UniProtKB/TrEMBL annotation:
<dbReference type="GO" id="GO:0005737">
    <property type="term" value="C:cytoplasm"/>
</dbReference>
<keyword id="KW-0418">Kinase</keyword>
<keyword id="KW-0808">Transferase</keyword>
<protein>
    <recommendedName>
        <fullName>Acetylglutamate kinase</fullName>
        <ecNumber>2.7.2.8</ecNumber>
    </recommendedName>
</protein>
<feature type="domain" description="Aspartate/glutamate/uridylate kinase">
    <location>
        <begin position="24"/>
        <end position="266"/>
    </location>
</feature>
<comment type="pathway">
    <text>Amino-acid biosynthesis; L-arginine biosynthesis; N(2)-acetyl-L-ornithine from L-glutamate: step 2/4.</text>
</comment>
<keyword id="KW-0055">Arginine biosynthesis</keyword>
<dbReference type="InterPro" id="IPR041727">
    <property type="entry name" value="NAGK-C"/>
</dbReference>
<dbReference type="Pfam" id="PF00696">
    <property type="entry name" value="AA_kinase"/>
</dbReference>
<dbReference type="InterPro" id="IPR036393">
    <property type="entry name" value="AceGlu_kinase-like_sf"/>
</dbReference>
<feature type="binding site">
    <location>
        <begin position="64"/>
        <end position="65"/>
    </location>
    <ligand>
        <name>substrate</name>
    </ligand>
</feature>
<feature type="binding site">
    <location>
        <position position="86"/>
    </location>
    <ligand>
        <name>substrate</name>
    </ligand>
</feature>
<dbReference type="GO" id="GO:0003991">
    <property type="term" value="F:acetylglutamate kinase activity"/>
</dbReference>
<keyword id="KW-0067">ATP-binding</keyword>
<feature type="binding site">
    <location>
        <position position="184"/>
    </location>
    <ligand>
        <name>substrate</name>
    </ligand>
</feature>
<dbReference type="InterPro" id="IPR001057">
    <property type="entry name" value="Glu/AcGlu_kinase"/>
</dbReference>
<feature type="site" description="Transition state stabilizer">
    <location>
        <position position="247"/>
    </location>
</feature>
Length: 289
């Protein structure tokens, strides 16, 4: 009996948070490193289904860097990155389309259904909601090939799904508004574009580390609250490197564009998503202006 009362208390405690976020959109970016971990992914998706059930509007944007690299290597194509973006020739683009916009996108959606929720895959193979243009970095970066940035998001399609209790699942590819080509987009920047277009309350990046660290390999050096200025300095100093650079840059750009809260959290920590939403202190790193 005592245990049942305790459980009821927990539900009542959650009521304030549920009210606060009910009807609001949270964009959840699933990193490719996390998609490799089947158990962790299932736990996250259960949290996502819970959020949807209590009236929040979760929207998933996912990457798949690791799986793309593995598939390319199988075909004897050597992956190449410039400023955190994959150089994408036609053969690489075909692999990205098959693995990211096809297999992984279907896998995440099917897992949601398998766990009792309703998911809808929105990719270039089904219903595309991301439109864009070729990404031009500085001269030094050279031509990245079929790499894009998102310039427009079909908000109505995504909102329509949320109204009918479905979780939209969006891979990071867009269609070029000029010539209709399919373009490979860094998933962190795609999540940023979606969060901005939807006027999301929150953008949460789920990765395979506990947050942004002062020392990359030391989990105890996690920074709970990171200002824009400090983040830029850490990138300059080289303390933030590799895949964490586009993620932090996307966080900073998102804050400038009116999304209330941006977090980087560890997707392999059980219930990290709910802890982030339902606890006052939160988990991981919160980016602040
Ligand atoms: N300062 C830092 N703090 C935490 N992680 C860092 C830092 N600098 C670089 N990283 C690396 O960034 C990685 C996360 O980026 P990435 O591999 O692109 O993840 P995802 O697939 O989730 O997008 C971590 O696994 C870590 O190795
Ligand atoms: C242009 C570009 O770099 N696209 C990325 C898209 C996937 C991605 O970003 O996946 P993660 O979230 O796992 O990093 C790529 O090809 O790897």
């Amino acid at each position: 009996m005592q245990e049942a009362i305790q459980k009821a208390n927990t539900l009542i405690e959650a009521m304030g948070w549920i009210r606060r976020f009910r009807g609001k959109t949270t964009v959840i970016k699933l990193g490719g490193s996390l998609l490799e971990n089947e158990i962790a992914l299932q736990h996250i998706l259960v949290d996502v289904i819970f959020m949807e059930t209590v009236g929040m509007r979760p929207v998933i944007v996912h990457g798949g860097g690791k799986a793309i690299t593995a598939a390319l290597e199988k075909q004897g194509i050597q992956p190449q990155f410039v400023q955190g973006r994959r150089v994408t020739d036609a053969a690489t683009r075909d692999v990205v389309r098959t693995v990211l916009a096809g297999e992984l996108n279907e896998y995440v959606t099917q897992q949601i259904e398998y766990l009792g929720g309703r998911g809808m895959n929105l990719s270039v193979h089904t219903t595309n909601v991301l439109h864009g243009k070729r990404l031009m970095l500085d001269d030094e970066a050279g031509d990245l090939g079929f790499v894009g940035e998102v310039t427009r998001v079909d908000r109505q399609v995504i909102d329509g799904l949320s109204y009918t209790n479905q979780v939209p699942v969006i891979p990071s590819m867009c269609v070029d508004e000029n010539d209709g080509e399919h373009l490979n987009v860094n998933a962190d920047t795609a999540a940023m574009a979606v969060a901005q277009a939807l006027g999301a309350e929150k953008l949460i990046f789920l990765s395979d580390v506990n947050g942004v660290r002062r020392e990359k390999d030391n989990p105890d050096s996690i920074i709970n609250s990171l200002t824009a200025e400090e983040a830029r300095q850490l990138i300059k100093d080289g303390a933030i490197e590799g895949g964490m650079i586009p993620k932090v840059e996307a966080c900073l750009a998102t804050l400038q564009r009116g999304v209330g809260k941006v977090h980087i959290i560890d997707g392999s920590l059980r219930h990290s998503l709910l802890l982030e939403i339902y606890t006052t202190s939160g988990v991981g790193t919160q980016l602040v202006p």
